[in-house]
Design goal:
56% helix; 5-stranded mixed beta sheet; 11 helices; single chain; alpha/beta; Rossmann fold; globular; 5-stranded parallel beta sheet
């Protein structure tokens, strides 16, 4: 099997070689470059499958590399390495065509491997989608020519083509189902990546505080056994110990809450089980698991729930609906918008559950409003849009939950989805 070629462009020798060793052990073929100029030469010579590039380098930085290969990064995954806190650099690189990013210092290299796997799967889905569309167009052209050629045998052709069409519809539905499942799994993959980034922060703070407390304890112990311990040393240590313990406990509780939300949402999203649950609390868990995607820009989510709403339904279905709606806002509504607002209203009316989702994004042109729930309709063709997000929502609401969904929008005036779900189904 051909090894995936990864080009690593970074001027920091230790980090670059560490990445090479790690990825080589995972079975990847690695190529090194210490600056962007050499990296461009290697791109032409080796034609890598994935590019992993630092943003800040001498000679030619990562932004220069992006500008020089702007025509090919649509097909070659480009992952940027950014210093901790340089979120503005990450946003700029993303706008220039970068697929994903990794923050350094890299404390857990599994995050790097996860980013590589994610962009690899995304590239594969893009390729399969393009091949599928090309095959479908070729099939339509072939059938059109056949009909024109056999006009004199119309009745016989109708019977034959009807049978072929039925088979094609069956195959199309099968393929569509596979693509929908792939979209759901991609969403779950994003959830895993996001929660990994979120957990790193409280765990990292806890490790730092615990290390500091250990060092302080050793210093205090040495003073005690050397008979040099003063009252002020003990008081200072106790103050630090109390503060550190409280902060460690607070961060561990935060990590535990994130893991609990992730386990709950991930299990529900990957299964079709029905159970009794608090819908408002569950949606908050879903939103918590999506925080990593939301905080890339200063977007805000406001949720209004009149009271506790307990229902016997499919929590994974609601997770998928909320996740796809938020993804739609991030990809389409908030394109080139840094401060978006999403509002979720949830209440019961006339024995029906009402969920109103709205954002203040770009909205949808009137001519596209009737097409948004159609499978494979997207205004982001070739830019990561599959055209299945809203189609999945429509099918889940109408088929799985026996409800109805309506969209209201106007260009540059945001979008509103109103979902009715009968209770007791």
């Amino acid at each position: 099997m051909k090894k995936t070629k990864i080009l690593i462009i970074d001027d920091y020798d230790v980090l670059r070689k560490t990445i090479v060793m790690y990825l080589t052990d995972l079975g990847y073929q690695c190529i090194e470059a210490e600056n962007g100029k050499i990296g461009l030469a290697h791109i032409k010579e080796y034609q890598p499958d994935i590019i992993l590039c630092d943003l800040r380098m001498p000679v030619l930085d990562g932004f220069g590399v992006l500008r020089n290969i702007s025509s090919i990064i649509k097909t070659i995954p480009f992952i940027v390495i950014s210093g901790d806190g340089d979120i503005a650099d990450v946003i700029k690189a993303h706008q220039m065509g970068a697929w994903d990013y990794v923050i350094k210092p890299i404390k857990d290299f599994s995050i790097l491997n996860l980013a590589i796997e994610k962009v690899t799967n995304k590239a594969k889905l893009k390729k399969e989608n393009i091949e599928y569309q090309n095959n479908l167009e070729n099939l339509v052209q072939s059938r059109t020519k056949a009909l024109q050629k056999h006009k004199e045998k119309l009745e016989e052709m109708v019977l034959s083509r009807t049978q072929e069409l039925q088979n094609s519809i069956i195959e199309l539905k099968k393929t569509q189902s596979q693509l929908v499942q792939a979209e759901k799994m991609a969403s779950l993959g994003q959830l895993v990546a996001g929660i990994s980034h979120e957990i790193n922060t409280p765990v990292g703070i806890g490790v730092t505080l615990a290390s500091n407390l250990e060092a302080r304890t050793e210093m205090l112990s040495k003073l005690y056994f050397d008979n040099n311990l003063k009252k002020s040393d003990l008081e200072n240590y106790l103050e630090i110990a109390v503060d550190s313990s409280q902060m460690i406990l607070s961060n561990l509780k935060r990590a535990a809450e994130l893991i609990r939300s992730f386990k709950l949402v991930a299990v529900d999203q990957s299964s079709e089980n029905k159970r009794y649950f608090d819908l408002g609390s569950y949606i908050k868990d879903v939103l918590r698991s999506l925080q990593n995607q939301l905080k890339k820009k200063s977007h805000q989510i406001v949720i209004h729930i009149d009271e506790e709403i307990f229902i016997n339904s499919y929590p994974g279905t609601f997770s998928q609906i909320i996740t796809n709606l938020i993804q739609n806002s991030l990809i389409h509504g908030f394109e080139e918008i840094d401060y978006g607002k999403i509002t979720i209203d949830l209440f019961v009316e006339d024995n029906s559950l009402i969920l109103i989702y709205s954002d203040n994004g770009k909205g949808i042109p009137k001519e596209n409003l009737q097409k948004i729930f159609t499978p494979f309709f997207t205004t982001k063709r070739g830019k990561g849009g599959s055209g299945l997000g809203l189609h999945i929502i429509y099918n889940l609401v109408t088929t799985k939950l026996h409800g109805n969904i309506k969209c209201e929008t106007a260009k540059n005036e945001g979008i509103k989805f109103k979902i009715w779900i009968p209770l007791g189904k």
